[in-house]
Amino acid sequence: MSVAGARALSRGKPRLVVIGNGMAGMRTVEELLQLAPDLYDIAVFGAEPYGNYNRILLSQLLSGEKGADEIMLNTKAWYAEHGIALHAGDPVVAIDRRRKRVRSRHGVELPYDRLLIATGSQPIMLPLPGKELPGVIGFRGIGDVECMLAAARAHRRAVVIGGGLLGIEAANGLSRQGMQVTLIHRGSVLLNQQIDADAAGLLGRNLRARGLALRLDAETVALYGGERVEGVALADGERIDADLVVMAVGVQPDTALARSAGLHCERGIVVDDTLQTYDPGVYAVGECVQHRQATFGLVAPVWEQARVCASHLARFGHRRYRSTQTATKLKVTGIDLYSAGDFLGGAGTEDLVLRDPRCGVYKRLVLKDNRVIGAVLYGDVQDGGWYFELIRNATDITPFRSRLLFGKRYCQALDERQTRAVA
């Protein structure tokens, strides 16, 4: 047993072990410290050799807009200040639920009274010939960014596979580092999970203007090379030379450890409304979990999970987690894009659309029964948060429908004038 484990036993406090030193697990710990700062002896195990950092800002680390110290949320000194034993670079490899113990890769064994699993997700690596070649990586952590930056210093050409948020951010960052970048997407619409075709067209035009080559409706079938990756082959026979290939086609919940411990998993680790697994002593939060058939990849729901889970760990068991609407914003400097809700619409819906190609502005609001149910904004996103509130609150927009596309300020001005007229 480690010194930290022995110290926890001698104090007689219940022991909380956290598996995963990422944003979800540590946000839960922060919430717990606010509610019950002295309740547990806490130990945290993380696979990466750092403190806790903001994974959302990895694209800005890649582009050179931020340094590694600027994306840190909790430095190693923070853990010491709060009496938390941090085992950085030493992931847990086994959970013994019967004995309530964990074992790390380096052989550290600790007992627990409560266990919090926050193993996050793993990048999906396409099962293509050549995927094991050096120079083929995912985009998930600081280590991946360091590999990309090293490649940018030594090589010229990069291919990014995947036209979603991560793919576009990776492609833009590598381009800013001086690489010739080709972005390959199997669909005809970039960000097809977040925006509609019109906004995607404006986005594609912007990316091409930045020097990126786009291959849409393109299927990658193989990677080729000798000692290192040298390019990708497409289904139509085209071959694109590349010294670096980044796969950004999505992520999947990291459930391997939980499964090996016998916890119930489907796509993710199955949790109830308190973020408790089928084992009452084990909780799970973040991208590794599945709640009511849903899995998660955005920050807002994970923060709410952290609040609920911390409440129950602190023995204030009054909160329940419910999935809610989420919004998406692209994190690429100079590209303003925002979407929320049901932006595609369907039967019984209608669209309000504003297009200004000259200024590169596009807005589309989807309405149903005089309520906003979805929004796509490109070029002017300052009212994104307000539209999201309208969606979430199911606000009746009848009084200001004619001004809705012009934003909150114009709608409020109309409301104030009507109020003064009545008075």
UniProtKB/TrEMBL annotation:
InterPro entries: FAD-bd_OxRdtase, FAD/NAD-bd_sf, FAD/NAD-binding_dom, FAD/NAD-linked_Rdtase_dimer_sf, Rubredoxin_C. It holds the Pfam family Rubredoxin_C. Keywords: FAD, Flavoprotein. Signal peptide: none annotated. Residues 327-394 form the NADH-rubredoxin oxidoreductase C-terminal domain. The keyword Hydrolase does not apply. SUPFAM superfamilies: FAD/NAD(P)-binding domain. Belongs to the FAD-dependent oxidoreductase family. This is NAD(P)/FAD-dependent oxidoreductase. The lineage of its organism: Bacteria, Pseudomonadati, Pseudomonadota, Gammaproteobacteria, Lysobacterales.
